[in-house]
Amino acid sequence: MEWKLKNMRPGFGEALVELGKKYQQVVALNADLSSSTTTHLFGKEFPERFFNCGVAEQNMMGMSAGLASTGKIVFASTFAMFATGRVYDQIRQSIAYPKLNVKIVATHAGITVGGDGASHQMHEDLALMRVLPHMTVIAPADYWETKKAVLKVAESPGPCYIRIGRTDCPLIYDESYEFNIGRADLLKDGEDVTIIAVGLMVSKALEAAEILSKEGISARVVNLSTIKPIDKRMIIGCAKRTGAIVTAEEHNMIVGMGSAVAEVLADFAPVPQRRVGIPDVFGESGESEELMRAYGLTAENIVENAKIAISMKR
Amino acid sequence: MDETIPELKSSAREARGWVLRMIHEAGSGHPGGSLSLVEVLVTLYSSVMRHDPDNPLWPDRDRLVLSKGHGCPILYTILAMNGYFDKDELLTLRKLGSRLQGHPSMNKTPGIDMSTGSLGQGLSAAIGMAIGARLDRRDYRTYCILGDGEIQEGQVWEAAMAASHYKVDNLCAVLDRNKLQIDGHTETIMSVDPVAPKFQAFGWNTIEVNGHDFKELLRAFKDAASVKGRPSIIIANTVKGKGVSFMEGSVKFHGKAPSDEELEQALKEVGGGEQ
After folding, report:
1. Which residues pair with A28 in a beta bridge?
2. pLDDT tens digit string along B75-108?
3. Residue closest to B190 by CA, chosen among B219, B154, B165, B226
4. SS (H, E, C) A149-182
5. Is A155 a catalytic site residue?
6. Residue A95 predicted with pLDDT over 70
7. Other C-beta atoms lying within 10 Å of the C-beta of residue A211
8. Considering A14, A57, A145, A250, which one is annotated as catalytic?
9. A154 and A23 in one domain?
């Protein structure tokens, strides 16, 4: 498939500026990564509401909590590694438990960080965030979904985690797309198997469906961009209709989106499921695309797993 | 100012009695670090802070973050004595369904401005509140109570740096310098001295007082409010377990409830046994 590429990150930065114009209460914090996270766009427009906390993420999360307690809509941003693992306790104690209105927007998630290697390749963030009560967890698929999600979460009080990647990524949507928190998006209908994907893997899922259709297999594709609260109705519907599920995510296969789907299936509609994701290993340096191939984040691997899932149907 | 001191002393006696009774009733809790904070919190809620027990979410109220969340028995006591809720409720501390959690929860207890318990996080939140006041052009002040064992947490020093960077002169921290932490003397476990020069080096105004002397505390809070362009910290030299002979300076009562006999003895000593 031919894709038009666009980086997701400006979707965040531009949405933040829009929000800043719309709401006086919007403030943005970052930890010495304002250009990389694109929050510098907000900083330029609204310097008095922009706080660069330096290389001190724990304090940034605590300040975010305090600001939120005074009625601010707070966006705190840094790389996914430092926005979750580094500050897990600060998020748990100071943001999630008191249910404060802090939106954590993490960039540079996943293996496609590339050359920086394992220390910066965050594959556990969805797991860490989705086990926190009160936390909404979103992994947009492209620039437009990032932008729409950021605009949407500002209207919905409470803690939220949004995960976006570093690289340019295929455009799945256009400006007309409407994002709703907690609602999965059915991108392509199909009968034999459902591929549920998030983030960069949504484009790979669509490619996989095309390969499968050439082999006479009809695959559904669903973008499960809100991982929590999870769209149970969509997942159960897909399980009942297609009888087999494949999940695909740029995240550790343990406790990520695939596990969240498995939890729903186990409780409500047990059908065969295969998971495509990063095996339980740390990453390494390399080019984004070659890393995705090396770690099985490919359309071909989704195709293979779709066939296995179908073969497991009773 | 000084004429209120007899009243403050009487409040402190009553508060100590409640702290002991509620922890005894709960069967667990932290008497040592609650008793060391009695005068600090009595002073703040009686004579320093602008607050309204009938309107705990009043946007213009002064905020208080008890960063050493385990000291909450004394904070709950002061809130109850000020009318945020009935004093009888104090005896529900740590019980299932109670609004008075083992560590403060802002969504459960009226008058609690920030949930705390995991040490080292409150000062950052207090800075956020202080900046929030500035952004909203409100003149409320934010107070943050730190423990001296707590300042071994790295985040405290990230926050110390940020507070002076953002020049939050509407923030006043108080260090409960009772010199003991769970495992022993702070200077044996992980020395924090010299405390004042550390904060001064981070750009803070420091004021050192006897944390059980109302006159000194009242003056310190007044002085802190007059300092412009930088945050202040009041280093309150206190005695852990203050007021109860067998708890004073005792590590044993950091996190242990008094027995029936100990409670009886302790109430006699603090003179707060009468309700």
Report:
1. A50, A75
2. 999 999 999 999 999 999 999 999 999 999 999 9
3. B154
4. HHHHHCCCCCCEEEECCCCEEECCCCCCCCCCCC
5. no
6. yes
7. 16
8. A57
9. yes
Q: Quick check: is A175 in a domain?
A: no
Write the DSSP string, A227-280. Answer: EES--HHHHHHHHHHHS-EEEEEEEESSSSHHHHHHHHHHHH----EEEEEE-S
CA distance B38 to chain A (A): 25
Write down the pLDDT at residue B271: 85
> Minimal Cα distance from A92: which residue of B?
B118
Q: Which domain holds residue A192?
A: 185-311
* Separation of first and last alpha carbons in chain B: 27
Q: How many domains does the structure of chain A reveal?
A: 2
Contact A66 B128 (CB under 8 A): yes
Q: Which CATH class is domain B5-270?
A: alpha beta
Closest chain A residue to the Cα of B165, Cα to Cα: A53
Q: Residue A153 and residue A147: Cα distance in Å, rounded?
A: 10
pLDDT digits (tens, 9 = 90+) for A257-294: 999 999 999 999 999 999 999 999 999 999 999 999 99
Structure tokens at B1: 């100012």
For A240, A244, A268, A305, A314, the CA distances from A272, given in Å and listed in that order, are 11, 5, 13, 11, 9
Q: Specify if A282 maps to a domain.
A: yes
Query: How confident is the model over A106-115, as a mean pLDDT?
Result: 96
